[in-house]
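Standup notes, structure subgroup. Blocker cleared on the thymidine-5'-diphosphate input:
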Amino acid sequence: MAGTGGALAADALPGFFISVEGVDGSGKTTQAGQLAESLSRDGHQVQVVRDPGTTALGERLRALLLEPAADWALEGWAETALFLAGRVQLTAEVVRPALESGAVVISDRYIDSSLVYQGARSIPWEAILELHRICGADLRPDLTLILDLEISAARGRREGRPSLDRLESEPNTYHEKVRAGYLEVARRFPERAVLVSADRSPDAVARDCLELARARLQPRRAV
Ligand code: TYD
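Run returned:
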């Protein structure tokens, strides 16, 4: 079984891989940026990436996948394959080389987003993990920060945004499944995934994220 995608665990590489996950509106992007600043101040070489995105292919796929009023159908498996394609490129072109060079890589979303968002469309987790393994996009993060927020609160935050993208426009029932998926990720992969309550000030959330990252980075640096 592919497990956490452990065949290519990032902990076999010299760097440190952090993924930041959460429902839309949970504040991941802000937190990923803050964490990068703090770890840079600590003296780490830090690279922030976003998934989907970062590479030329990934940014094109992102535009396509998030297009607010898509006038074309996208079946669950096709959606899975497109997110996977972006992640294969991101892993090969940026994440793996950065980890090989010893950097801390912070990814704004990674494989767990596929498990929970495409899983919420009834795509089986085992199939998603296996596809990632086959395609070499199954780097297991050393730490996954899951910013947990109730959907009613997340929706309130999203309503402040100028326009909703294709996935943000999905009904609450879909986003509830996504949140439940993240709780399942935390249960299933406790060695790397930590729930962080996002229903607090950004500074309080940032302090917890930094503490969790430092606690895991230090023992490895001390060896
Ligand atoms: P996100 O990264 O949250 O960007 P922003 O908050 O800046 O709009 O948007 C990406 C969307 O794509 C989000 O709704 C989750 C979804 N997604 C998937 O469905 N599957 C995936 O594998 C990934 C990485 C994202």
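Discussed briefly. The helical segments are 28-41, 56-66, 76-100, 111-119, 125-134, 151-158, 172-188, 202-222.
Next: hand off to the docking folks.
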